[in-house]
């Protein structure tokens, strides 16, 4: 059985620019190779690297691949999003109930009994694009902040691995029907939460 990866006949597979820390860029590149995918991987470990990548691209002559933000706090300018041929995707370290900053801290402080990660179309404002995947896991009582972070990163890598066949192709990711919560996690909202008891 063959899988249609959405790559045009005779065309090379799209490059994948991974916007994340260096360790994650290396891990994701290794995952892509281990899956036997032939895509070129471009490590984009921060804002300066992102600026260098898009220095020669614009809407009329876009980056010919896909930008993937992976658990990063770098906000991609709208001009860069428009200068990308394939829909950029972001992996947010929180479920749709926790868009914005400090998602893990909000969930831990609020004693959430489940948590997860969200893959979504990268748009502005942040954490508002169509959701293409959610990976949830239970949070037992007494889970430490460090354990929650570890489980979140594991869930993010698992979701990326699941979505790789689509993200590594020319195909448009399919929305899953989940919706973002209306709240937005911000530093100001964080400061109003009761402290640990």
Characteristic terms for this protein:
6 helices; 17% strand; single chain; 197 residues; alpha/beta
Please provide a written account of the structure:
The protein has a 6-stranded mixed sheet with strand order 2-1-3-4-5-6. It has helices at residues 22-34, 47-53, 78-82, 103-109, 145-167, 187-192, and strands at residues 16-19, 41-44, 66-70, 89-92, 114-121, 131-138. The protein is an alpha/beta fold. The chain has 6 helices and 6 strands; from the N terminus they run βαβαβαβαββαα.
Rg of Cα set: 17 Å
Total count of helical runs of at least 4 residues: 6
- End-to-end separation: 56 Å
Relative strand content: 15-25%
State the helicity in percent bands. Answer: 25-40%
**Widest beta sheet: strand line-up:** 2-1-3-4-5-6
What's a quick, concise take on this entry?
This protein is α/β, with parallel strands linked by helices.
What order do the helices and strands come in, and which of them pair?
Blueprint: E1 16-19, H1 22-34, E2 41-44, H2 47-53, E3 66-70, H3 78-82, E4 89-92, H4 103-109, E5 114-121, E6 131-138, H5 145-167, H6 187-192
Parallel strand pairs: 1-2, 1-3, 3-4
Antiparallel strand pairs: 4-5, 5-6
